[in-house]
Amino acid sequence: MKGVNFQEVLYFLFGFACGFILLTLFSQSYQALIANQRINSRNPKHQSYNISNNGQRYDQEMSDRLFNEVKILCWIFTHPDNHKKKLPHIKKTWGKKCNKLLFMSIKNDPTIPEIVVIPVENGREHLWNKTKLTMEYVYKNHLNDADWFMRADDDNFVVMENLRYMLYQYHHQTSLYIGCRFAIKYPKVEDGYMAGGGHIFSKKALIKFNEISIHNESLCPQADSSLDDVFVGKCLKNLAIFLDGRDQFDQKRFFPLSPEQHFKPALDPKFWYSQYLWRNVSQGDLQCCSDTFVSKHYTNPKEMHSLQYLIYNVHPFGLQKNLTETLPRKLSIEEIIKLSDEKSYAPNYKEHKIVHDIGDDEKYR
Known about the structure:
The protein has helices at residues 6-42, 61-69, 87-92, 127-142, 160-167, 203-213, 228-236, 259-263, 272-276, 301-312, 333-340; strands at 49-50, 57-58, 72-77, 100-105, 115-117, 148-153, 157-158, 176-179, 181-182, 193-194, 199-202, 241-244, 254-255, 295-296. By secondary structure, the protein is α/β, with parallel strands linked by helices.
């Protein structure tokens, strides 16, 4: 019997070891590649889907374009008790889609650099002072950081892509005030005001609020109050064009109530919302609500993450819409004024002549 050749055995063991190492490295690389593909497929920054038979694809291109063209500063009203409870969840979900994000509080928190301290006392009765000081701070420090400025609460959820889509048809050099428009029987607030939970000011509206209204007692209340939303409407009366944020089908984009309230076939006419809503829109099923909804109020942190997942990650197989999306055309100043001047049928509405003090630099065709 031929003796064992130790040199051949060594060659065999060496080759086996090298093969094993290469196979292990290949396996790890392959697993990492698959994992990365799974992550990217769930990341809105990298995803793309086949959505029609002719091979059209949906990707981030339009969203990125609007992010750069429709720049929005978001300021969020909060208080110290909610710094840890709510603010991290806003930052992880919709807040990261703002061009600039600020949290307005009465106390600093070194772990949240976006907090701006507004020197007022805590409590709803001091909301008007907080609002005035916030709008003055943003005007003095961040006017050139954005073209649009959104005021929201720390229990809002906002679909920023839909907000930019809505704002694209307007011009920020015109004084515009946009949201869920309410009517109220309050002196000199006949033009209404925008309900809490998200409303938007154009850059020109923010400028006029600060340069004309804020310290003018005949235009703007000076005493503190909890009626901050109402008082903003009073201060901007005649100085801004008030627009309800409905879509082209008269469906709601801003939800001051929970969505299930809007899905009801009808609301009690004595219910406060029915009294205040500037324009009566459809109730019941999904006819009430826009496909491009913008803002939901009264959202807890768990719901924020649920909405984030359902809106940005769930795509029903075989039911995907053809998302060959087009941007809306720019509206003329005459068209915008016509929308603003639509008569309200709200029980709280007081009929009056609407005056728009619009400068020549705000007009365009």
